[in-house]
């Protein structure tokens, strides 16, 4: 009997260590990414940049241990670290609002924003559970020109974080297109004004995997919805489930 006990105790200890290790490396159940201004993974998912690999299907899954300063967190999707990939820079002013879309809401410690290795903003959630979308207004501290912002979502109860790099052209119109200069009035203006340009509309039935722009309309469950915020649809984001992304019309 003593021999059996000597054999069994190490086995039990090994099992306990294995179980502890398993829980330690289990990824967070939450997922999310910066949808606007379009992050690098958002640009891949929307087809703005091609040749991105699997991140096209999983823009919300750029997950890695906390503390990395890489666009992919040092984990999957190394293409996101390629500064020569042709990422489109969004024109913004001295500050900008970063909109996250979350496929699952996990308790959060902090949201951090970096430029060139320097942290320019932090938002402390104190372990609270966020909503389906999260927005932060970030001031760039006088920086101008082409910059890449690293956004990091730190999960409260795991060692993991989610990463998104956003390419910006800082300084100028603040993200809005410059005003259109009206031509000089004609001697006799037309009787009827030109028709108002309607917002873009994909139409049809809502479908996961489709990139929707603000103002797009879809049908789902016999109802019509209008897109509130540009994003790439994912399973679980059906219009009735995410009122932050869709409004019923």
UniProtKB/TrEMBL annotation:
Cellular component, GO, one term: extracellular region
Pfam families: CBM_5_12, LPMO_10
Position of the signal peptide: 1-30
CDD domains: ChiA1_BD, LPMO_AA10
Biased composition (Pro residues): 176-198
Gene3D superfamilies xrefs: Carbohydrate-binding module superfamily 5/12, chitin-binding protein cbp21
Chitin-binding type-3 domain boundaries: 203-249
This protein's name: Cellulose-binding protein
Gene: cpbD_2
